[in-house]
């Protein structure tokens, strides 16, 4: 029933083509216990999430730790299997696709990981790291491969002379550039950036974000930008989905969500982010949420936010709020948002 | 009611030391020429180079810098918490209460650490002891520094937990750190640091490991406590946003040196060091959507080399010959401001007469 309602989410409200459509996606990790290791519960990491990503656009996915942001990314790329729901990539439902057919699609979607120290093999040279996707998918002949590696390195702002060095010889920002070169090696259409700047120094973060923006512009890439840095998401995203405890609370274009948030969680989240300007800071009103995020293994009944919500009522405990459209392209899951 | 009397007396003592938020210069800690280096297998790391600053009574000092800028090592050096060897405090002094913390006997320093100068670390999971209860860890410093009887200690530990906003504090006293969430653990750390009502509280990236809604809770708590007790706070962070709403004064560190020092308002309104302005320009803003982010090109400096020129010169858009030849000291440019730069951004020319 829920999924039927999702179907009428307007795909073309901005006139753009939907590249990735996620519908009622769930990912539950079993908790086993007892002598026979039976399943005694489930961590509901992602619990019924729907959104569209338009071709050439950036969707920002924000949320606090444990809200399920990274799991959504992994399930979209089929690195984890969905418990329920569908992920449609260019009219193919990836959750129903396996084997060689899925392998043919994989080059078209790539990932940039958070930690550039852990995501690059320390025993491989830069050229073999960046060249590995080309080799794996037989995308280039040996001679062409070297040219392509040089081209990729200069695209991400590294020198071709770096090709024979090892990851430990590079700084965090440069390593992230290597990870990005690997991600664009196969000319993908869609890249998931999973906290790509969280491990970097402030002065390096803007370098990487500018690089991602330039690449998007030149290569026509579509991004899912997963981050907890709300200021950076405002800078880079076209639309933003706010996640809480495995559910999307609000989804709208970037300006609407930052200037006029509708969901009480979005309002509190945005008010909690400090602004680097003492004058603005002194006049800002902060909504301080009580308590912590509940465990996704034991989420509260009704609205997941009802334990911390400043305007929660009995109805929020009894009834799961409907995922509804307020106006063109503005979606919210709250009984009282208008 | 013996225990209650003990704690109310404590609160009264706290109230007496209450200070208005912004106070006149009355230094409680004066650091001068602090230089710390580490002798590693790869060579000498010049982590802190001739750092000087003061903290006034009841003042909130923000220390901003990226990783490797020396902000943590500076504070750890003051309390001699760095491992020695490989670390070595080569020069400098840190005057607290007419004593040089870098020279006094370690036993004397132990009576200052925790009692007069509290420390909150970044990661409460690794800085709290996992096999001791929260109550024990709060009482420990009361026992060592104030030799209070058991009953008074328990009463005060309870009071401290209430003060830092932990729900059902009686039960929490008996909890172990792993039973608490990240935000709650950081509250416990604050309770431990405040137990002996220190004059100075050093907080080393206390909210970096926390989610933004929990960070807001901790910031509000520290604001409250500071107003109540007039404790001077040194808040180390890489986040220029956090400091903007909290600090009275800010020092900016780069490559193991202080490059700029100013009152919070003037720092953000008119940064005098190219690094500060670059850093501010590279930050996206939550409250406005800009175009392209300004970047600081290049990488932070390697600390293996002793900085005999300006460490920021290779990345600086204004650098000229002098910057590559001579290291600028922290020059006073107004009664409240200092900057370590040969270039005057106000006039757009090299500084005169220095």
Q: What fraction strand of chain A? A: 15-25%
Coarse structural class of chain B: alpha/beta
Strand count, sense and closure of the main sheet of chain B?
Answer: 8 strands, mixed
Helix residue percentage of chain A: 25-40%
Low-confidence stretches of chain B: 1-23
String of helices and strands of chain A: HEEEHEEHEHHHEHEHEEHHHHEE
Shape of chain A: globular
Structure description:
- With 338 residues, chain A is of the alpha/beta class.
- Helices cover 33% and strands 24% of the residues of chain A.
- Chain A has twelve helices and twelve strands.
- Chain A has an eight-stranded mixed sheet with strand order 6-7-8-3-9-10-12-11, with helices on both faces. In chain A, strands 2-1-4-5 form a four-stranded antiparallel sheet.
- The longest helix of chain A is centred in the middle third of the chain and has 18 residues, at 202-219.
- In chain A, 46% of the residues are buried.
- Mean pLDDT of chain A is 88; it is low at 1-13.
- With 354 residues, chain B is α/β, with parallel strands linked by helices.
- Chain B is built from 13 helices and 14 strands.
- Chain B has helices spanning 2-16, 71-78, 106-112, 124-127, 134-146, 150-163, 169-172, 182-194, 212-229, 240-244, 264-269, 274-281, 321-325; strands spanning 27-40, 43-56, 60-64, 87-96, 99-100, 117-120, 200-204, 232-237, 249-254, 257-263, 331-334, 337-339, 343-344, 349-350.
- In chain B, the strands form three sheets. In chain B, strands 6-7-8-3-9-10-12-11 form an eight-stranded mixed sheet, with helices on both faces.
- In chain B, a hairpin with a 2-residue loop joins strand 1 and strand 2 (43-56).
- In chain B, helix 5 runs parallel beside helix 8 (182-194) and helix 6 (150-163) crosses helix 8.
- The longest helix of chain B is centred in the middle third of the chain and has 18 residues, at 212-229.
- Chain B is globular and about 65 Å long.
- The model of chain B is unreliable at 1-23 (pLDDT under 50).
- Chain A binds chain B through residues 64-65, 171, 173-174, 201-207, 209-210, 213, 228, 230-232, 234-236, 254-255, 258, 268-282, 284, 286, 288-289, 292-293, and chain B through 66-67, 181, 183-184, 211-217, 219-220, 238-242, 244-245, 264-265, 268-269, 278-280, 282-287, 289-290, 292-297, 299-300.
């Amino acid at each position: 029933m829920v999924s039927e309602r999702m179907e009428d989410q307007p795909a073309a409200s901005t006139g753009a083509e939907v590249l990735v459509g996620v519908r009622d996606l769930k990912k539950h990790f079993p908790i086993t216990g007892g002598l026979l290791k039976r399943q005694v519960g489930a961590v509901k990491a992602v619990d019924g999430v729907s959104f569209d990503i338009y071709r050439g656009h950036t969707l920002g996915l924000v949320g606090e730790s444990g809200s399920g942001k990274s799991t959504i990314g992994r399930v979209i790329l089929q690195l984890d299997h969905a418990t329920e729901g569908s992920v449609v990539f260019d009219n193919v439902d990836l959750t129903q696709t396996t084997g060689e057919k899925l392998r043919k699609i994989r080059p078209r979607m790539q990932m940039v990981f958070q930690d550039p120290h852990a995501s690059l093999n320390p025993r491989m040279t830069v050229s073999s790291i960046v060249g590995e996707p080309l080799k794996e998918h037989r995308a280039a002949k040996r001679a062409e491969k070297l040219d392509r590696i040089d081209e990729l390195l200069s695209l991400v702002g590294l020198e071709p002379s770096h090709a024979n060095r090892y990851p430990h010889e590079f700084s965090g920002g440069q390593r992230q550039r290597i990870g990005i070169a690997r991600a664009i090696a196969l000319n993908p259409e869609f890249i998931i950036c999973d906290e790509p700047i969280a491990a970097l120094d402030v002065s390096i973060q803007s370098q990487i974000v500018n690089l991602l923006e330039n690449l998007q512009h030149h290569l026509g890439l579509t991004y899912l930008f997963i981050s907890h840095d709300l200021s950076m998401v405002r800078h880079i995203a076209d639309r933003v989905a706010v996640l809480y405890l495995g559910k999307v609370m609000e989804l709208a274009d970037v300006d609407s969500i930052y200037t006029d948030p509708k969901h009480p969680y979005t309002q509190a989240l945005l008010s909690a982010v400090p602004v680097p300007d003492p004058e603005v800071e002194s006049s800002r009103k902060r909504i301080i949420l009580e308590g912590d995020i509940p465990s996704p293994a034991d989420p509260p009944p009704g609205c997941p936010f009802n334990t911390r919500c400043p305007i929660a009522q009995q109805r929020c405990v009894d009834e799961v709020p409907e995922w509804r459209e307020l106006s063109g392209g503005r979606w919210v899951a709250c009984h009282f948002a208008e | 009611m013996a225990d209650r009397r003990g704690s109310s007396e404590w609160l009264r003592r706290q109230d007496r030391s209450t200070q208005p938020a912004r106070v006149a210069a009355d230094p409680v800690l004066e650091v001068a020429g602090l230089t710390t280096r580490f002798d590693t297998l790869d060579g000498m790391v010049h982590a802190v180079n001739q750092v000087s600053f003061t903290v006034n009574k009841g003042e909130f000092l923000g220390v901003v810098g990226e990783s490797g800028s020396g902000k943590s090592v500076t504070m750890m050096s003051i309390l001699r918490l760095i491992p020695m060897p490989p670390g070595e405090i080569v020069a400098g002094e840190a005057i607290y209460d007419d004593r040089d913390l870098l020279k006094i006997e370690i036993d004397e320093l132990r009576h200052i650490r925790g009692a007069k100068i509290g420390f909150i670390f970044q990661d409460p999971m690794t800085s709290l002891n996992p096999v001791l209860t929260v109550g024990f860890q709060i009482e420990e410093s009361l026992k060592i520094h104030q030799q209070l009887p058991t009953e008074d200690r328990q009463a005060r530990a309870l009071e401290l937990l209430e003060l830092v906003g932990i729900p059902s504090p009686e039960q929490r006293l008996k909890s172990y750190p792993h039973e608490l969430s990240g935000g709650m653990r950081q509250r416990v750390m604050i309770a431990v640091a405040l137990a002996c009502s220190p004059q100075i509280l050093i907080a080393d990236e206390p909210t970096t490991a926390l989610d933004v809604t929990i960070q807001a809770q901790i910031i509000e708590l520290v604001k409250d406590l500071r107003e109540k007790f007039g404790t001077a706070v040194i808040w180390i962070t890489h986040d220029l946003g956090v400091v903007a709403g909290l600090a009275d004064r800010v020092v900016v560190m780069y490559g193991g040196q202080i490059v700029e020092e100013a009152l919070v308002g003037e720092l953000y309104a008119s940064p005098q060091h190219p690094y500060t302005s670059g850093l501010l320009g590279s930050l996206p803003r939550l409250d406005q959507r800009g175009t392209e982010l300004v970047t600081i090109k290049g990488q932070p400096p390697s600390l293996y080399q002793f900085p005999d020129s300006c460490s920021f010169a290779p990345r600086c858009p204004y650098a000229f010959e002098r910057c590559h030849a001579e290291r600028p000291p922290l020059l006073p440019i107004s009664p409240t401001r200092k900057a370590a730069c040969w270039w005057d951004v106000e006039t757009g020319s090299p500084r005169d007469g220095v």
